[in-house]
Amino acid sequence: MSRQPTAQSMISLSLAGEVAIKTGRVRRDFRRRLCANLAATAARHGADVRVRDRRERIDIEGADESLLEPLSRVFGTQAVRLVRALPWRNVEEVVAAGEALYGDAVAGRRFAVRPRRVGPREQVSISTSQIARDLGTRLVEAGGKVDLDHPEVPVHVEVRPHDVLFFDRSVPGAGGLPVGVEGHGLALISGGFDSAVSAWQMLGRGVSLDFLLFNLAGWPQEKAVREVLHLLEQRWAGGSRPRLYIVDFRPVIAEMRKRVEGRYWQVLLKRLMVRAADQVAADSGADALVTGEAIGQVSSQTLSAMTAVAARAETPILRPLVGFDKHRIVELARHIGTAETSAGVEEFCALEGGPPTTRLTATELDREEERVGRSIVDAVAQRYRVVPHTEFGAALGDGPEIEHVPEHAAVVDLRTDAEFAEWSWPEAIHLEFDRALEHAHRLPADRPYLFCCEVGLKSAWLAETLREAGYEAYSFRGGVPAMRCHAPAERERKRA
Asked: 449-463 pLDDT, tens per residue?
């Protein structure tokens, strides 16, 4: 047998159908973005590669088998193959190369030769039927047995104008459109199955994304969301640089619980979130909001509720999962790789306000929204934090919630006058939440502070805000009810 010719090992990708059928400038722009996304993905995995656009194919020179899986998750690709490339001048050279590369591999095994031409016919005048016949004959002589239906060794031969590729395995690509060719969206993310899958769906349609978390439960929720986003960004968002905007929505929930009937909470919460998301979308340059809503999945996702929620939105709302059922969403989450993490994320939006309303009009929801008022929604929306994609996977420190009163801490009660008069921690300072928002940063920074409120939502938000300003601040977990139950044990501990 002849000595195996010198071959260049690399990865070659075919374009997804939606990219390949584009014409003119659009196709060039899509290919250019796809090449940039592939290069960024390879660099993320520590590979020094050269990406070459061959029109019908994209070659990744310097890539090895370890990049097959990461590159297969880049949207815009149809198939990803580890190939060996050699120059050719005639059929004889192609056949000789194929025999040298596969002669040993087919000995005693079933094989099939699958040749094709790629490129203009006038530049690839070689006969694929002749390649199949002549190379097949050589491989039979090497000990192989032809089996066109169920080969153990498929021998793919792809003849291009200036080289020929040999490969025996093709990994399916992600399909879709390259991330970044279809504008910019802001995806509302909770960490659960739905929001992660809806974001993935939009990435696959070429939309680059930033993410918006309405934090309802403090640092545990942020931690879970960042874990999900780290997986999503690392696996599927190659070439983009998403940001996570975090809006602490606990003060809004506290006001809503106080001023609105419980049956409206679920739907009104979504309306208030959309109101705040409009502001963040304007700041982030997003063309649309993306949600994980699916019709009928929960009480706030009936058709009438979804219509009422979106009625006053200033930014278009995209719902890529609107017709999906939960089983399909979970299956997609497993494919994406976020299912296990999302399964451990609590449903932070759950509000126990009694049986929720499922049918209402936009006008009815307007009335309930007025009870809360726009000022508090505007205030929290303007105080968002931004986490760059490079920090999605970073460890978070401990949160501000505790279940004891620290020594020498000033206890600050954020409830109303009537609630404070009914019961308060001994020597607690009374500062209603609205005034605390305005004056908290004027507090002396020479002592620790423990904030408390009705259920621990407003106090946790304020404690985290002051921590960012350098204060030693805490929130009593569970609010005043938990603090009140804890009071006898606390007194005993201090006596000891």
From this structure: 999 998 787 788 789
